[in-house]
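lol so apparently i was supposed to do this last week
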Amino acid sequence: MVKYDTVLIRFGELSTKGKNRKDFISRLYQNIRDMLKDYPELTYRKTHDRIYIKLTDEDPEEIREKLQKVFGISSFSFTEKVDSDLEVIRERCLQIARESDKKTFKIISRRHDKSFPVKSDGINRAVAGEILKNTDLKVDVHDPELAIRLEVHSDGTYITSDKIKGAGGYPAGINGKVLLLLSGGIDSPVAAYQLMKRGLKVEAVHFASPPYTSENAKQKVLDLASMVSVYQTKMTVHLVNFTDIQLAIYKAAGDPYAVTLMRRMMFRLAERIAQERGCLAIATGESIGQVASQTLESIACINDAIRIPVIRPLVCFDKLEIIDQAVKIGTYETSILPFEDCCTIFDPKNPVTKPSVEKSEFYEAKFNYAEMLDEAVRNKETVWVTPKKDEEDFL
Ligand code: ATP
Ligand code: MG
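anyway here it is w/ adenosine-5'-triphosphate bound
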């Protein structure tokens, strides 16, 4: 049996040059090590265009699953490292061909070490010739069932017959930090995933209105945070008590403007916390037209309350596309658990779909919200969540 002993990792989105490239690789390297911290026997090596992990007795399936969650990896392969010697290379490739049950093949070689005496074309021909002579496999250069890749380096040659797609994007955290408004719904956890994929570190803020919202609703949000935290290994979550502000809004404005005002207050709170935490933007799971508060008019009116940029990764996604993503990242089942969050409880019957800033400010002038916001920020509870190992621990 061919024994794969080294994982070879290829990078994504590396159009960047110079220092950016260095930062990209260092961050990716660290993120990979963090992701695999439960495997102390692994040894790592990075070069300007690859990262290598030397395996001992780890379960390759577990390593594969973890690596597929690291943003910035474009693809990776389980390889066997052999001496950079054409005879050895030929023999190992023949063994891979013999052990496979495929009918067609292709050899794809890359000569990184230019001092190796045979060019990649020559290597392809020598190896393919050996396989044609000794097996029934036929060459198919366009759509081979078995693609044997080999990379010749000065310290050895890496041979593989697989190429596993990575998560793509940028290494988590390389592009700065944002504060995401995380509800217990379907959308915002998907937004977290999208932001992290762009290399942003995500902190979350959740607004709860106890006793109108339950302990279960809060736990659900923490579970969702834990699920998406896997992509950045941990996540900070700020829990803000929104009850008093929400009650004051209803008293001052009544039904139609309640949602608009609530969201303006949420944005103001988020802006304050973002500033406190060094986040340069806030983010939401909003998508145009989905509900009354997400018409373009509503978005404009709500946005007017703050100055900090708002990132809306899902703004043009269909609900079905968002659900698809939620299923893929494993948050959907938890998101649809029926625990009330603060918006569903105070669900107004006739929310305005075209709110105005003037009217919003008119209602807001009726109570001293600035002080209430300060107090809510001061009393926030901050927790750190990490991925759970056992699915059973979730609600
Ligand atoms: P989601 O499925 O993410 O809850 P939604 O379709 O239910 O979204 P809304 O309830 O209008 O839409 O919320 C829009 C966005 O506002 C959410 O994606 C989230 O970013 C933010 N948000 C809503 N409620 C809360 C909350 N209680 N705490 C924090 N953020 C919230
Ligand atoms: Mg919601």
